[in-house]
Amino acid sequence: MSTSIAPWARRIKKERELRGWTQRACVERLRYETTRELPEQSTMLDQWKRWEAGRVMPSAEYQRMIASLFGSVSGAFFAAPRSPQEVLEAAAPGSDTPELLARLRRSAVDQATLESLRLTVDRLCSDYPVINAHQLLTEGRAWLARLADLLELRVSLTQHREILSLAGMLALLVGCLEQDIGRSPAAESTRQSALTLGTEAGNTNVVGWAHEMRCWFSLTQGDYRTVLTSAEAGIEAAGNQSVSVQLYAQQAKAWARIGNQQRVEIALDRGRELLEKLPPPMDPSHHFVVDPSKYDFYAMDVLRRSGNDKLADGLADEVLSTSTDWSGRLVAPMRAAEAYVTKGVVAARSGDLEGAISYGRQALDGTRQSVPSLVMVSQELGQVLTEQYKNEQEAQDYIEELRSLAERVA
User: Fold this and answer.
1) CA distance 357 to 365
2) How far apart are CA 408 and CA 29, in angstroms?
3) pLDDT for 257-281, tens place per residue?
4) SS3 of 54, please?
5) DSSP code, position 365
6) What is the CA radius of gyration of the chain?
7) Domain ranges of the chain
8) Which of 12, 39, 219, 377 has a CA that sits 20 to 30 A from residue 191's CA?
9) CB 16 within 8 A of CB 23
10) Fold designation for 7-70
11) What are the tens digits of pLDDT across the range 73-125?
């Protein structure tokens, strides 16, 4: 009876073949890129063949080396699919909302109340990728108002700081949702409030994410210099926290659009090296946590922008595969949408108009969208269609759909 090859083994082979490398060349590159002493070449080649066949899993050290060789992180390359039980165990325990509201009405602010509030904020942040943006925005604003009321009460200094931190995190979420639905001025105002709350609380994670949001907003507006300066400010504030990984990714995206490939690679390498050192996140679905699989999403964007179609298309497949959970439910629809755009751009460049339109429409059909980001990446597909298929009616119809989407954020 044949056994299926592990996903990590299939990916090792796929990444090698996408680059046109032989197994021997991969072994030579491993030897070149590490300072540690490796076994002799023939032994390493046999080891590589066993890895690629899925007969033995690389050690943790070799996992990091292999992922680095292909410009990724071990957490994305060698992540095992999570079982339903693991998903349930990783989820933050739900708070008893009616009891929590009753305590807040009684102005009962103790540690149990703050812990329930923290779980509520975490739950809202984890709902971000899949819950309707308008619905989640209404709920987020309601809880933010309750937290603001708590700040008026007589509480200890420690409690005051924790409430400020929770309000800052919730303000970040509200600002992201406002941006997603095209309310950019409101989103920027809320982002500034989050920055103030994080600063007052001394919460460098909130401060870092507030700078990251400015990077994101500026990127969608084509203001790449602000992306770079805001990223530097965020990294300086947050240090070696996971938000800095995303800040390096925003730098890479900006440099890719400016056209400086060397800077792109430096930014991606810095983010990859930091992410490799961080522990796996307890809840990868939390919007303000950088999970390892997101690194492929970052790299996909810059590879598409640089015209490296083969590798971009391969990473788009990886992004799509990690955008569903064990049950087949789409858990990262916004990432999936950008992956479909990437595949559409690659198809259009290769002369496949039908495939390009099909992928493009899959990107636009999602019910959970970040409209400014989707407009930004979809314009790349629209540009290729305009340049290569300006006389094709199907291409013109799709470009018109893009114009309608862009009007929502104009």
Assistant:
1) 12
2) 48
3) 999 999 999 999 999 999 999 998 8
4) coil
5) T
6) 23
7) 7-70, 94-202, 223-292, 293-410
8) 377
9) yes
10) 434 Repressor (Amino-terminal Domain) (1.10.260)
11) 888 888 765 544 444 444 444 445 555 555 545 555 778 888 888 999 999 99
